[in-house]
Design brief:
globular
């Protein structure tokens, strides 16, 4: 019996081995499915599903019956959008969303009435196609959509400048953790805070006390402690506005603004806080729409500059996580570019997420067309989608 078994075993093994090697060399066999969850999800997605993940928009962008120009301001948005008070998902939004999935929704003050309304609105948003993350600008101080709403009984903060003036980073942690705790309670995933700018220009009308300090050595630990406070509360933070909005005079919400610093000068100031945030592990960095002609050699906004986003932020500083634009409805963008030019251009420059386009449908269609005609490759889209899916996985685990 033993003598018969061994040759039979060898014969079977030879057949199996032959089949195995033949299988490995066959061009007709299916590709082995990826073991990585993100990669597996990416492979199943259509181009439109991928493109949708790269847009984080206002709820109003999904309601195509609303006809006005979205113009973002520091405190919120233009008066005409405030009057609409879109505070629930409607049938038009659901219809648009069927064709235009979206990766994230950002709520502004006019979208939020009170706890009851917000508790009803957020599940409606989460059910949208694209499985959007919930985002908000809740810095504390002047920019606080919930903190400055009298219907919410939460701790309020004077300003980040006041916290920075204490010289104690524990106060920044307390601020971030307090804000993060109530944002988590209400259902938010991402807070577009803290401001990592260094407010070195006394004539700056847009940053001011939103920054922790005019000294980068003071600001840096404040930024990282605020981020840690958010993280410990279960909310993801985002440092802004790269490469630094603190040395400007004009307001990018309304038009062109610039910093005349060289890169070497920025490394001695602005980059101290951003490098601290990167070393800490920040998951998102928001771009500034400022021009930096002595860095890029042109008047192109940093949001649209591959020199700023690829050469400096990714290359020199080694940042590998998500780059998200500041709101693309702001005047510094809309006065120079169409919706299509802005959305495609910032992705070509290296951004991962297009935030708040003035016309979401136009911008979305433009990106799809750019892939179809070769101005953007699907591989380039995939790079950003991987980062976005990875973040979603981390947030929702």
């Amino acid at each position: 019996m033993r003598k018969l078994f061994f040759p039979l075993f060898i014969t079977v093994l030879g057949i199996c081995g032959s089949a195995f090697f033949t299988s490995c060399s066959s061009d007709d066999d299916p590709v082995t499915p990826p073991t990585d969850e993100v990669e597996a999800q990416l492979q199943k997605m259509t181009l439109r599903e991928k493109v949708g993940q790269l847009f984080y928009v206002r709820p109003e962008c999904l309601d195509t019956t609303i006809h006005f120009n979205l113009v973002s301001t520091i405190d919120n948005s233009a008066d005409d959008i405030k009057k609409i008070k879109l505070q629930a998902v409607n049938a038009t939004m659901l219809g648009v969303n069927e064709k235009y999935p979206v990766g994230g929704i950002i709520l502004s003050a006019h979208n939020i009435e009170d706890e009851v309304q917000l508790a009803a609105f957020i599940p409606q948003i989460r059910a949208l196609k694209g499985s959007p993350l919930l985002c908000i600008d809740e810095e504390g101080g002047r920019v606080a959509r919930i903190g400055n709403n009298e219907n919410f009984l939460v701790e309020k903060f004077e300003s980040m400048g006041a916290i920075g003036a204490t010289g104690d980073p524990k106060n920044a942690y307390h601020c971030g953790n307090t804000i993060g705790t109530y944002l988590k309670k209400y259902g938010f995933d991402i807070d577009f805070a803290p401001v990592a700018d260094v407010n070195t220009n006394p004539e700056n009308i847009v940053i001011g006390a939103r920054a922790f300090s005019d000294d980068p050595e003071v600001a840096a630990p404040m930024v990282t402690n605020y981020l840690q406070g958010l993280k410990d509360a279960g909310v993801t933070g985002c440092i802004k506005h790269f490469p630094g909005h603190g040395d400007t005079q004009a307001d990018t919400h309304f038009g062109y603004a610039q910093s005349l610093k060289t890169w070497e000068q920025m490394k001695d100031c602005e980059m101290i806080t951003f490098k601290a945030g990167i070393a800490w592990g920040t998951q998102l960095i928001m771009t500034a729409h400022i021009a930096a002609p002595n860095v890029t050699g042109s008047d192109i906004p940093a949001t649209m500059s591959s020199v700023i986003l690829q050469d400096k932020l990714r290359g020199e500083l080694g940042y590998q996580n998500i780059i998200i634009t500041d709101a693309m409805e702001m005047g510094a963008i809309t006065k120079q570019y169409t919706n299509a030019e802005a959305a495609v251009g910032t992705l070509q420059a290296g951004a991962d997420i297009v935030l708040g386009p003035q016309n979401f449908v136009e911008a979305f269609d433009a990106v799809v067309k750019a892939v179809e005609d070769g101005r953007l490759t699907e591989q380039r889209i995939d790079e950003s989608v991987r980062r976005v899916l990875k973040l979603k996985k981390q947030i929702r685990r």
